[in-house]
Amino acid sequence: MIAPPPLKLPPPPRLRRTRRRASRVLGVIVLTSFIPLAGCARGCTSSRPPIHLNPSMDDQPKALPQTASTFFYDGASMRQPVPGTVAIGGLKEDVAFFTGKGADGQFVATIPVTADEALLERGRQRYVIYCQPCHDARGDGKGILFQRGSVPTATFHQEKILKYPDGQIFDVITNGVGLMPAYRWPIPPADRWAIIAYVRGLQRDRQARAASAPAGVK
Ligand code: HEC
Asked: Which residue from 96, 155, 163, 209 has the least number of CB within 10 angstroms?
């Protein structure tokens, strides 16, 4: 006797539904993964102008900065500011604060700002960032330039700098001197004064220590 062929029953309806759903999801994935490939939406260069769904304000007659213009008599698209105009934050009336020099052209003796806790803390931070690498943490001038290249770096504890008016140290930071570079751009004026207040603190510390130490001990 030949065995009857096994019965081919259709899969139960739940399984069918799951399969159908699975193949639909797969289809969507395949389709969406082709869209960016076909369109090359990103990462491709093209000589054609980009597709612009809403070109409202991009293409319009306008004057770009520093361009020529036939509209104005001087041929420039940009206008000169009205004489006497001062940009916001550009008013530098306080000469001592911005130059370290008084009205008489002499360096101011003391910082033209109030030295409080906050100023000293700001000064300490800025000193650590901008001065300590060369002048070392205590201001002895034994920083990296001295250690690696024997570059003579001024100590803040020498007679000359102890006697400098605050305005002169401001000038050194602003314009540099000898081998010392200018820090006009990285350190704004307010921070320069904060640094000076901190350096004065370092000097006073050293003086006090020298005065109170027993003879022969520094
Ligand atoms: C890149 C290294 C370097 C940094 C950073 C640096 N200095 Fe100097 N500084 C020097 C050197 C070098 C000299 C000695 C200049 C000379 O005599 O040619 C000097 C000299 C000075 C002097 C003495 C100037 C004089 O008239 O003799 C003062 C004051 C001073 N520095 C303050 C500062 C302060 C404050 C900072 C931080 C804002 C600072 N320096 C950051 C290298 C540096």
From this structure: 163
Cβ pair 175, 185 in contact under 8 A: no
Of ligand 1's atoms, which has the minimum distance to the CA of residue 179? 18
131 lines ligand 1 (CB under 6 A): yes
Chain position carrying tokens 């029953």: 9
d(CA 101, CA 92): 13
What pLDDT does residue 4 have?
Answer: 65
Is residue 101 pLDDT above 90, yes or no? yes
- 179 Cα–ligand 1 center, Å: 7
Q: Is the CB of 153 under 6 A from ligand 1?
A: yes
From the CA of 192, give the closest atom in ligand 1.
38
Query: In this predicted structure, what is the pLDDT of residue 40?
Result: 60
Check pocket membership of 128 for ligand 1, CB cut-off 6 A: no
**Segment 158-185 mean pLDDT:** 97
pLDDT at residue 140, rounded to an integer: 96
150 — pLDDT class (breaks 50, 70, 90): very high
**Cβ 195 vs Cβ 171: under 8 Å:** no
| Nearest atom, ligand 1, residue 133 CA | 5
Structural domains in the chain?
Answer: 115-211 (1.10.760.10)
Is pTM beyond 0.85? Reply is no
Cα separation of 155 and 135, whole Å? 7
HSE-up of 8 (CA within 13 Å, CB side)? 1
Question: 112 — phi, psi (to 5°)?
Answer: -85, 25
